[in-house]
Amino acid sequence: MKTSLKRIVAGAALACGALAAVAAEPIKIGSVLSVTGPAAFLGDPELKTLQLYVAEINKKGGVLGRPLELVHYDDGSDAGKANGFTKRLINDDQVDILVGGTTTGSTMSAAPLVDKAGIPFVSLAGAVVIIEPVKKFVFKTPHTDRMAAEKVFADMKKRGLSKVALLSETSGFGASGKKETEAVAGKYGITLVANETYGPKDTDMSPQLTKIKNTAGVQAVFVFGLGQGPAIVTKNYKQLGIALPLYQSHGVASDEFLKLAGPAAEGVRLPSPAQLIPEKLPANDAQKPVVTAYANAYKAAYKTDVSTFGGYAYDGLMLAVDAIKRAGSTDKAKVRDALEATKGFVGTSGTFNMSATDHMGLDLSAFRILEVKNGDWTLVQ
Predict the structure, then answer these.
(1) 256 and 44 Cβ atoms separated by less than 8 Å
(2) Dist CA 314 CA 186 (whole Å)
(3) How deeply is 64 buried, as exposed, middle or buried, from its count of CB atoms within 10 A (0-12, 13-18, 19+)?
(4) Residue 155: which residues within 8 A CB-CB, separation 6 or more?
(5) Could you tell me if residue 101 is left (phi over 0), alpha (psi between -120 and 50 degrees) or otherwise beta?
(6) Which 3 state secondary structure label does DSSP give 323?
(7) Domain range for 308
(8) For residue range 31-84, what is the model confidence (pLDDT) as tens digits?
(9) Which domain CATH number covers 315?
(10) Residue 15 lies in a domain
(11) What's the rounded Cα separation, in Å, for the pair 310 and 275?
């Protein structure tokens, strides 16, 4: 009898040990980010944010009693490399979910792979093409380029500006931005009287700006790009003595833009998430606690300012964690369904309300119009 009891106890102990081992198996978060290359000022804070919060979540016991493991690769701002690394994450690393894709190009090179593999993917890139048409397993956290154009045009309309010159980058983000800007201009009574482009590696946009300057009737200029290009445009703009209102897209919503453009950025307006101005938000703003906490944590960890791009990564990770918790497992189909059912989730980018037809879940109210004054961001009322 005693021997049988010992065997039962031993068996139970082994079973508990096996269960504990299973419970301790990490939840793998895969990520391909542009930590180096032209888009590094987007990808670097994204990686830092994921690393910071994966560590914080693990300190508090992980998710579903399991630690998170971040498996990440740097695509060097090269969409082709992003494709290869995504394959590695799916086939070799066998991740449970992906949070990444710094640029539209990188995201779109990964999208067919994750859809085919049936792995939930929360992108950190901006173009509307990522979620339109809806791709079953692909979601995103940043506002779309279409929303950016609409927010800018709404502000221009308030200022009585209707004849606009568009200058866009030929990258995936800029090209999509150009297309969406052209599509919504008429809705706001805007006429594009000039339409120029520049390459992502160009170092002088004076020729395009000179054409715009010499175009009759131009009342304002809208630049659609990311990385260093928009800052170069801003400097060239000042050098050419163009006095018209200058707007940028959310692709430059970062303090890095202020550093790169310097005094030339004075007066520039752009649509931005609340993340750039936590201390300037009203006390009753639903996002204020979220963006303030993120800003404080990031600054404490890295001794540097936050950016909206790091905020996109925060939102992506927290949406993924929230979905896994609601799904009660890492079953990929269940997590996908939980992501799609996200409602009232307050992040740094806005309040997310997703659906079967909307895999982003943000509306125009999630954007704020900011203006550079005295070298700092101010909120346009």
Answers:
(1) no
(2) 35
(3) middle
(4) 247, 269, 369, 380
(5) left
(6) helix
(7) 22-139+289-362
(8) 999 999 988 989 999 999 999 999 999 999 999 999 999 999 999 999 999 999
(9) 3.40.50.2300
(10) no
(11) 9
